[in-house]
Write a structure and sequence with these properties.
With 141 residues, this protein is mainly alpha-helical. It has one domain. Helices cover 75% and strands 0% of the residues. α2 runs antiparallel to α7, α3 packs antiparallel against α5 and α5 runs antiparallel to α6. The longest helix has 28 residues. It starts with 7 loop residues before the first helix and ends in a 7-residue tail after the last helix.
Length: 141
Amino acid sequence: MTVIAAPRPIAQMLALPGFDYLARLALAPPFLISGIVKLADFGGAVNEVAGLGLRPAALIAGLVIGTQIGGSVFFLARRTCWLGAGVLAGFTILATLLAHPFWAFEGLDRGRQTATFFEHVAIVGGLALAALLANGRGMRA
């Protein structure tokens, strides 16, 4: 299989030191900000978890906060990027299955839930690619 080389300016940008960090920096904020907001409004976080039917809601809310903040910190550090990516990807898969079951909706709601579901699938793919870049593996066809 023939791989088409990136144009020189793009190849130079991709080769910049720290480019992998910029990619991780673009992926981490939804998790980090969500964790901080939940921590600042723990009651709201507990209500959100309880609204999904999960019990004990306070314990699960605390675990979610720890996962989002801790996973983000691990993900942003090159040495532990793989761990943070795994934690955040696992969390995203579980949360997406619980919060966006598009198959249980109809009409416009099904379309919205389906779009959100697959946006989260894309985030999981981005986490995996960022971990590959941080660990010195380039993309392969």
